[in-house]
Each structure stands twice: as structure tokens, then as C-alpha cells.
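Researcher: First entry.
Model:
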Amino acid sequence: MTHADGNAQLRMRLERFQGRTVAVTGASGSLGQALLRQLHRCGAQLIALTSSSNALTVLSAEGQPIPLEQVRWRCGEEQDLQPLLSRCDVLVVNHGLNSHGDRSPAAVERSLEINALSSWRLLELFASLEPREQQREIWINTSEAEIQAAVSPLYEISKRLVGQLLSLRSLDLAGPQLRIRRLVLGPFRSALNPIGLMSADFVAGEILRQVSWNCGLVIVTPNPLTYLLMPISTLSRWLYFRAVSRP
């Protein structure tokens, strides 16, 4: 099968994105832009959510700017996005911060706010919106730092927190009106990790490929252990929370 044939089949499997509105946070980052490119190829109407005040231009594979609506926002102001998110069919929560070796109180606060609490608030907000005729979806990028070292303690702590919150709240929020997908990604090249092993475009393509298979747990990493440990960790956590908590 040629590369072109593979792309054609992928587009056919993702026909459900045709004309649907997709919002992506962290849109100015490497993965955010790669996801916008892939979703544009699938016919989605795009909203780029970014903290940057600079105009965002994302080029297609042919080198042409893709049409998108850019919206500036800041963590802590999630509620202000309600009117915009009410227009969305899919929300991709992709923003993040890596403090690397910094363990100062300020770094702790930033990491928890951006990597965990902001994602949790967006999940709650999106789940509270009025139902649409077609099921909404939210994809949350937690990273394989949920279960493995990332040589960045605060990144690991905050990603594990959002992973735990996602498992807990999925018990009540996931259902016919909302499909929750967890993105567990290995090291890819970006401003947060310039020496990542994978390209952002490859990761974005694999994310959409697994979404086309209707995977709730989307794993893209060169580390084979993650494919074994992450499903076990997610399932055991889900069973534990279900047994010891109540709606």
C-alpha cells in the first residue's frame, strides 16, 4: 500500500470529522499544530486555543495556510470558554508545561494549574454543556509520565494527578453524550522536549488512526512497556475508584 493509499483510507475512516467543529488547546505547540493539520485533512472546522497573542499560521502538507479560528485564553479562565465550547463537537485538551528540574513553590503551582487542574476544569465544563444530536468527544493528553519517569518530577506529579482525576470523573461523566479518550504519548520533538524520538506529525497521525478504531485509550510511544502497563494501570484504577467511591 502506498503512502497516498494509506492517507485516503484514513480519511475515509474519519468521515465523522467532516464538517464537525474541533477545538484544540496548546494549538501553537508542535503537537497542537500537527493535530490541526491532520484534522483539516479530515474536513474538520478548527478552533485553535492558545495563550499566545501572536497570529497562528498552520501550513498544510501542501504549504498552504489552513483555515482556523484562533482564540486566546489562559488557564484559570476556562469558564469564559463556555459559549465557544458549546459550538464544538470535539475538544482536544493538549496544553502543558514542563518545569524540568525546577521544584520551587512557583513551579509547583504552575505545573499543577496548567497540567492538571486546567484540564480537569475543561473536562467538567465540556461535560456540563447542553447535549447535541451527535455525541461529543473530549481527548485529554496525559502522557506516559502517568506511569513512567520523565526526568521531570513536577511534570510526572501533575500528569499523574490529571490521569487520576480523569479515571475518577470518567465514572460519572462518560456516557452516551460524552466520549472520553485518554492520549498517552511518548517523547516527541517539541519545545518541551527538543530531543524527542518521534515527530509531532507522526504522533498526530497515529492518534487519529487509533481514534478511527474508536479507542478510548490511545497510546503512541516507542516504549513497548507502556502498551502493557498503561491498560493494566487504567483498568485497575477504574475498578478501585468504582469500588470505593460513589456518584
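Researcher: Second entry.
Model:
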Amino acid sequence: MNEPIAITTGEPAGIGPEIAVVAAVASGVPTLLLGDSQLLREAASITGIPWPLPPHVAVEHIATGAPVVAGRLDTGNARYVLRMLDAAIDGCRRGRYRAMVTAPVHKGVINDAGVPFTGHTEFLAERTNASHVVMLLVGGGMRVALATTHLPLAHVAASITSDSLAATLDVLHRELRARFGIAQPRIGVAGLNPHAGEGGHLGREEIEVIAPALAAARARGIDAAGPLPADTLFVPSTLSRFDAVLAMYHDQGLTVLKHASFGHGVNVTLGLPFVRTSVDHGTALDLAGKGTADAGSMKAALALADRLASGVDAKA
């Protein structure tokens, strides 16, 4: 496989261009940086990397829409960010790139520019017409998938349905086997409510929605245990029984994982027709332009994308 991995360099006023250049150069993996070439040249200078970049790193110029000032958001660059994503998606679907890695974007400034944008995961699903995608975070010896992603907490319970859980478990089981090389994945599933509902006294979602969905999944051959109390599911002795955990909402699962691996964790989108990984952090506007941002998560995201795209068993 000689096709490069495409890296979208993210919000131009954030640390994305810097960490993308650092990670690509350090990796030795054939990569293609998507973004404004002058911006990337400045990012290389800031981080002490000679220009032109080494032969394994190419640049595809996509012009910014407005002048870039480190740390200062500009709605004039919102569509620039989306053009990079569209270019990477198109290249992956055409076989020009064997995977895509994304630097962080700023959801707020994209929405302020008049473009509804919930997040990378949802954008990629829409652009690829994927029937169902799953957000999986890898790090700290864990793989944590989410039943719901970027939703207000008040909307979470209504968004967890038997059908949505069935689709999520199917995708998670299939891609743990196909992408991660786990022949018989063991999935631990968290309850929604404290103590997994305490037998219905603290909520009935576990009884009426989650447990029936897990029983149906087991009937399809998926090893899904639960619903388990989330406050003890991540205890090492319990966690060791599973290859992945399915949490019901964003902060329920990712708070634990990011505590264990922040700055080195990787976000993986399952259910796409190609491999996509990303960093586990945001744009860090306060660090932009200083050349001091930690590229650890971007390096990990690129390394994991390389392993997954190569069909190499990828452990957390």
C-alpha cells in the first residue's frame, strides 16, 4: 500500500497545523497534509522543522478564506475547514488515500458562519451516506464506544432506543473483528442511570430498552454483557473482562478514558467505508502559534490509522 494517509489540518487558528506537521514528519509514514501551504510552512517554522518537508510528507494546497491569526477565530475560515474534510473524504472514497486523520476543528465558529455542524462524526456520516456510525475512543488500555455522541444531556435518554443500540452494537462488533482483529469481541455495556437503574427504582431505561436490546444482540451472536453500573464498569478487574465498553453518553465514557490517556488517546469513527482517526482534544487556541503544543495524540492517531488501514492488529 503506497497510498498516503491524508491529514486534515483543522482550525487554522488553533494548534492543528503545528501538530499535523510534527506528527507527519515524525511518523515516517507516507502522508498528505491538506491545508494552506503557507500556513503549513509557518507551522513548520514555529516547530523547528525544515522546509521543504521530508519526501514522505506531501502537501495539497487548499487556500484559507481569510487571514489567519493564531488564537483568533474567524468565520471566514469555516468553509476552508470543511473543504479540507470534503477533499479527504473524496480522496479516501476514490482510493487516493488509505485513511484520513483529522486535526481538531472548532464547532462554534463553523456554526457561527451559518453552517450547521455537530462534529466530525456526524459530518462524515452524512457525507458518506453511512447508515450508522459509532464514535470509539482508544487509549489508556481501553476502547470506549458511545451510544450517543454530541447531544445535550437532557436529550440523551430519548435518543437511546432499541433500534439505535442494535445498530451500534452491530457496527462495534463487526469492526472490532474486521479492523482490530478481535475474533470474538467481548463488549461491556453501561447502564444509563446510577446503579444501572437500581432495579427500576432509579429509572426504567435499563429494563425497558437496554436489557432487551442486549438480549437481542446476544441472540445475533454478539457477546454483550450488561447493562452494568457505569461507576464500577471501569474498575480494572471488571474492565479486564472486555475488549470494549459501550457507554450511553459522551461524558459517561470519555471522562474515564481521557483521565487515563489525555493527550495520547485516539478517536476512531466506526461504520465508515474507510479508516478515520482523530485526536482526543480540541483546538487549544491559547497554545496556537507558540510551537509548544503536544503532538502526542496526533502521532497516536496517525499510527493507529496506519495499523488499521494496513490490517494490522491494533491494541489499545
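Model: Note on the second entry: The chain has twelve helices and eleven strands.
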